Amino acid sequence: MSESFKKTYPFNIISIKDLGRKEIESILDDASRIADGLYPDNALNGKILALLFFEPSTRTRMSFEAAMARLGGRSINLDSIEASSLAKGETLADTIRVVSGYADIIVLRHPSEGAARLASEFARVPVINAGDGAGQHPSQTLLDLYTIKQAMPIDKIDIGLLGDLRYGRTAHSLAYALSLFNARIHTLSPRGLELPDSILNELEENGTEVIPHEEINEVIPLLDVLYVTRLQRERFPDSASYVNIAKNFRITPEILESAKDHLILLHPLPRVDEIDPQVDELPCAKYFEQSKNGVPVRMAMLMEMFR
Amino acid sequence: MSESFKKTYPFNIISIKDLGRKEIESILDDASRIADGLYPDNALNGKILALLFFEPSTRTRMSFEAAMARLGGRSINLDSIEASSLAKGETLADTIRVVSGYADIIVLRHPSEGAARLASEFARVPVINAGDGAGQHPSQTLLDLYTIKQAMPIDKIDIGLLGDLRYGRTAHSLAYALSLFNARIHTLSPRGLELPDSILNELEENGTEVIPHEEINEVIPLLDVLYVTRLQRERFPDSASYVNIAKNFRITPEILESAKDHLILLHPLPRVDEIDPQVDELPCAKYFEQSKNGVPVRMAMLMEMFR
Amino acid sequence: MSESFKKTYPFNIISIKDLGRKEIESILDDASRIADGLYPDNALNGKILALLFFEPSTRTRMSFEAAMARLGGRSINLDSIEASSLAKGETLADTIRVVSGYADIIVLRHPSEGAARLASEFARVPVINAGDGAGQHPSQTLLDLYTIKQAMPIDKIDIGLLGDLRYGRTAHSLAYALSLFNARIHTLSPRGLELPDSILNELEENGTEVIPHEEINEVIPLLDVLYVTRLQRERFPDSASYVNIAKNFRITPEILESAKDHLILLHPLPRVDEIDPQVDELPCAKYFEQSKNGVPVRMAMLMEMFR
Predict the structure, then answer these.
(1) For position A218, which CATH number holds?
(2) What is the pLDDT of residue A122?
(3) Can you give the pLDDT at residue A156?
């Protein structure tokens, strides 16, 4: 890792926007070496990670904990009930100051947008945002990028974002990050769940082409990467309209027949009905690999924070 | 451990029936050496165990976690609330595939019979069944056998199974395992809670003699081992009938007066009223020792899985 | 540490009263060396701490877990739901005997006064009381003393105890401990929440002067240490009377203007309205430092228990 990187690197990772393209590439390269086993397994010996999850996000929590363990470090956790009683008992600022006294780094998941930024102002140790409401979740974006990079150069890809693009935080952050890599973005979402204007404007400022589509069959053949997000039943007026719409957004082996050979299919998980289990066996299905990549990517982030 | 063992050993431990007598004896021998301190305390250094407990079983979970720690490994846990939200959010198959990406081995506790077998089909890492509904719980059976072996040769013992033998999963598995060791099995249970025919047939096929009894005083003098299981209040029509019947199944110092000198008394715990606390001080009371034996037995299992 | 200390040291730490002045000073000295980094980070390698928290006390739990991790040891935890199901399922005595088989030391938090003493009678490993109802919480008292000692010699200080002194367990234990160090104790509390007679008698027997005050402005200038405790809304007949009274007990920068230069301000946390956040920036505000001191103090306790 270059000296210039070390100097510009932020002490906290709150948003993917805190990182430039160069920083992102550096973390992905590190993750790649880690995935090949090229890391010291006692690098974080004696270090303590506090996982403060004020809403459940079991995959993120477990994979940060696994990442810390692989590097020889320890994690201390709140359980779900403790988290809710802590949140009732004192301000987030006080909790963060107290936990700063116990741990060397804090990973925070919180239901309120902006919570991680606030926490980083009160913390005396580095903070990683593991999702704050409709806000950011940078480690998810990094593992999404890493999974793309495993399959192809990230530059100038055609990516399809499918599903709930209004509330789907992971799609927003990924779209932003890909705008640094000159991607062309294709979108397909139910009416009312389109990409918000604020995101569109931001992508446009970065010079990124965003092409909305109406038909799944029209978009599939154009793509290098298809990123599917969860359609949440509670976003629809009733169960019937959910079922009616969801069936048009379901990925099946048939729908994928028109895809390019090298297409990869990603999903931040958990999935409900968005991807037919028969797709799991196809070579393009990379969502479980993507989830697994959370460990080396988070290991790379943790090593960077303790550098 | 012999070469032949290594070849036949299953990658998963789902049921005690996956193990032959030879395999069982090998694990018990390993556990015995471990209990004597003859094991490398960094054997599982860098390894990660995922404890997926979809119903509470605190003793089993804590003793697996202690076993992993004694060998230098790490554990990652779901908390109870996370487990229930995970179970609502996706299929067990998906959860198992995701967690396979984080951990080197999975210990699963699940309310549905057959869940562990299903999990082993989707996992990319070894799975140990830590209880699946009315199904199997092989580590419990191994620690029961280990505790017997500490006191006497397992072969050809007279064992009494007392209490709820219909729903008592631990009694079923132990009876099966002892049938490999030519035991004679004495049963005593409330009407309606007898050993099921399916289990009786299986024992008969293995050539095991099963002798039902009506009176506790009649059976005690015959036994080398008395295995008491919990009578659950909810199996009885009302509280009065529970109290009425439970008092006939309660082990007291008086009842044990007619026992052989070398009788040992086991219970999978927790106990409620089945054993008078005054019995705790008698030399035959081995149930806390039995619970403690969970650690070396599970250490032996974990070492075997990583061999 | 002197030989005489080693001989008199109790195997369990249930109450601060189990420790004499000499023992307390020895732990504080150890903690001080630990805080300077003078400890072997693998001192408790291979050791297992069981954290049995039957009521939430997240700070205490996390800082014991951090202390164990800093020394190379491992912790096994109950989650909140497991704890309540365990408590329903069996007696505390049985739980303690079982967990004694899994761990090398037990830290117990329990809602019932006397629970820790009972636990220590059934445990086969050392027990540390981490709070039992209205009873004791010795590690809190030790970290309070440690924080005082960082700022000044503990001997003969004038300390003010402010707030709910009737139910405030930490204030009771601290007052007792300071009576060993010839402190003069000033009290100020809402009517009905005064220091109980039993505590007053105990302090008097130890020759300690206790001076009740009526006005916060009258007491502040006299103090070397001000120890503020939480006023709990539920101790007051209604919300209005809470608000009315609490405002007279709120520490603000203005109120502190008459204080001695070297005054330090402590609070066991969490605080609600007792201390104005503007106070946080003043040099006298030591409550986050105090919370952080929980780690080296608990490390010193754990090392002592395993000595």
Answers:
(1) 3.40.50.1370
(2) 95
(3) 97
What digits encode the pLDDT tens for the residues B255-271?
A: 999 999 999 999 999 99
Residue type, B231: L
Tally of structural domains, chain A: 2
With 0-12 CB in 10 A as exposed, 13-18 as middle and 19+ as buried, what is B212? middle
**Which residues are CB-contacts of A104 (< 8 A; sequence separation ≥ 6)?**
A47, A48, A49, A125, A306
Task: Record the pTM.
Answer: 0.95
Is B124 catalytic? The answer is: no
Integer Cα distance of B306 and B299 in angstroms: 11
At residue B284, the pLDDT reads: 98
**Residue B200 burial by CB count (10 A; 0-12/13-18/19+): exposed, middle or buried?**
middle
**Residue C97 corresponds to which amino acid?**
R
**Same domain, yes or no: C38 and C112:** yes
Q: Mean pLDDT, chain B, as a whole number? A: 93
CA A182 to chain centroid, in Å, comes to 19
Which residues partner with C186 through β-bridges? Answer: C160, C211
**Residues in chain C within 8 Å Cβ distance of B56:** 81-82, 85
Residue B165 near residue B195, CB atoms below 8 Å: yes
Mind listing the pLDDT tens digit for each residue in A84-96? 989 888 999 999 9
Q: Tell whether B151 and B266 lie within a shared domain.
A: yes
Reported as a single tens digit per residue, the pLDDT across B105-141 is 999 999 999 999 999 999 999 999 999 988 899 999 9
Active site residue A59: yes
B238-243 CB contacts, 8 Å cutoff, 24+ apart? none
Let me know whether C129 and C151 are in one domain. Answer: no
| Tens digits of residue pLDDT in A191-249 | 999 999 999 999 999 999 999 999 999 999 999 999 999 988 888 889 898 888 999 99
Q: What's the ipTM? A: 0.94
CA distance B39 to B31: 10
Give chain C's mean pLDDT: 93
Q: Which residue type sits at C233? A: R
List the single best residue of C41, C68, C80 to mutate versus A (max A Cβ within 10 A). C80
Q: Is the peptide bond before B270 cis (omega within 30 degrees of 0)?
A: yes
Contacts of residue C100 in chain B, CB cutoff 8 Å? 288, 292
Please answer yes or no on whether C94 and B63 come within 8 Å at the CB atom. no
Q: Using CA atoms, how far apart are residues A109 and A123, in angstroms rounded to an integer?
A: 15
Q: Indicate if B171 and B265 belong to the same structural domain.
A: yes
Q: Identify the domain containing residue A176 by its residue range.
A: 139-291
**Which of chain C's residues have a Cβ under 8 Å away from the Cβ of B291?**
97-98, 101
B186 and B58, same domain (yes or no): no
The 10 Å CB-count burial string (b at 16+, else e) for B24-47 is bbbbbebbbebbeeebeeebbeeb
Spatial contact of B265 and B286, defined as CB atoms under 8 Å apart:
yes
In chain C, which residues have their Cβ closer than 8 Å to the Cβ of A98? Answer: 59, 269, 288, 291-292
DSSP state string for B66-80:
HHHHHTT-EEEE--H
How distant is the Cα of B46 from the closest Cα of chain A, in angstroms? 6
Residues of chain C above pLDDT 70, percent: 97
Minimum-distance CB partner of C81 among B56, B59, B72: B56
Q: Between these two residues, A272 and C299, which has the higher pLDDT value? A: C299
Q: Do C66 and A98 touch (CB under 8 A)?
A: no
Mutate to test the interface with C, among A53, A80, A94 (most CBs of C within 10 A): A94
Q: How confident is the model at residue A6 (pLDDT cuts 50, 70, 90)?
A: very low
Taking CA–CA distances from A51, the nearest residue in chain C reads: C62
